[in-house]
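Handoff note, outgoing to incoming analyst
You'll be picking up this chain. Sequence as last confirmed:
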Amino acid sequence: MKEMATRWIMHVDMDAFYASIEQRDNPALKGLPVIVGGLGDRGVVATASYEARAYGIHSAMSIRQARRLCPNGVFLPVRMAHYRRISHEIRIIMSHYSPYIEPLALDEAFLDVSGMNYHYADVIDIGRAIKDDIHRLTGLTASAGIAPNKFLAKIGSDIQKPNGLVYIPYGTEEAFLAPLPVSRIWGVGKVTERTLIQAGFRHIGDIAKAGIDALRPIVGNQARRLYELLKGI
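Most recent structure output, in case you need it:
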């Protein structure tokens, strides 16, 4: 069944981009905890493979701490020029699906795919197609989210990583968001997250039920913006 909605946004996010490139280029690294970053004492992790993330390693962590957590990890320097070339290849693939691309970084971008749904049996097939093209042409996996707006599309691309695909149809926005933790709301950092949890709001649906007035004492003049996000607007 074809969707008749006028606007569809897709967020495409490469999975552990730098580390996945290193594992692709050197198959001996597949299945190993690969950490890419600055290797000096003051260096930080740029990207960690999913095997390394199982040790608690994440982007922006100090290399020193990463070595403590995973002493047997494979630590590699950043090859930025190489990653940029591959990012350009992926951007060309994206251009086959939309002329409207908003890059966020080398490894992720928003695409306005409105109207493309008329070329596919279902909207979610657009996501399958671009993911298949990326894998076939680069050997890398991507996760994608397709939704009525950027906020929802970005959440969708993240919640089933790696190699995920999430489609959020019109009319399901609030139901999709309700069980997610409040940290998923754009603009909610660690401090605000703790304050919301202390106020009894662990999930987005908890705030939606309480209403906008419950947000005002916590986030002040940001209450309306955050409330609209948690309603899927």
